[in-house]
Amino acid sequence: MKILIINGPNMNMLGIREPQIYGKDTYEDLVDFIRNEKGEGNQLEFFQSNHEGDLVDRIQQAYFDGVDGIVINPAAYTHTSVAIADAVKAVGIPTVEVHISDPDSREEFRKISYIRKASLATVAGRGFQGYIDAIEILEKSGETR
């Protein structure tokens, strides 16, 4: 499968940002972990941006690139971005929402997810393993655009 793994704002600060919530591993550690676990047999592409429009542009470009599935951690945009949710709906690519922490167990505003209804599933609170779970959901879903 050709899978696009998208990470939103502040994910580039893993290892520095709130290590009591997100751990001490870096974004590069996350990418290496996913490649080591799911790189064989899959074509993985990683994209991270702190800018909402860049995330929307990359989701739209995924349509033209023939991406089979998207794993997305919109980070803070989970709770605010109708634009990202609309982009996922527009391209029709099977998408799984993932979060390192469990937003539902944190502040009240984090319980809102605009992307959830545009996604096949949500994986939260499983750390880096959540990305592997999300890829496996895509692999097993059999859904195509």
From TrEMBL:
Its EC number is 4.2.1.10. Pfam families: DHquinase_II. GO terms for biological process: amino acid biosynthetic process; aromatic amino acid family biosynthetic process; chorismate biosynthetic process; quinate catabolic process. InterPro entries: DHquinase_II (IPR001874), DHquinase_II_sf (IPR036441). Keywords: Amino-acid biosynthesis, Aromatic amino acid biosynthesis, Lyase. The keyword Lyase applies. Pathway: Metabolic intermediate biosynthesis; chorismate biosynthesis; chorismate from D-erythrose 4-phosphate and phosphoenolpyruvate: step 3/7. It is an enzyme of class 4 (lyase). It catalyses: 3-dehydroquinate = 3-dehydroshikimate + H2O. One of its GO terms (molecular function) is 3-dehydroquinate dehydratase activity. Substrate binds at N73, H79, D86, I100, S101, R110. The record marks R17 as: Transition state stabilizer. The active site is at Y22 (proton acceptor), H99 (proton donor). It comes from the Bacteria. Belongs to the type-II 3-dehydroquinase family. Catalyzes a trans-dehydration via an enolate intermediate. HAMAP family: AroQ. Homododecamer. This is 3-dehydroquinate dehydratase. It comes from Baileyella intestinalis. The gene is aroQ.
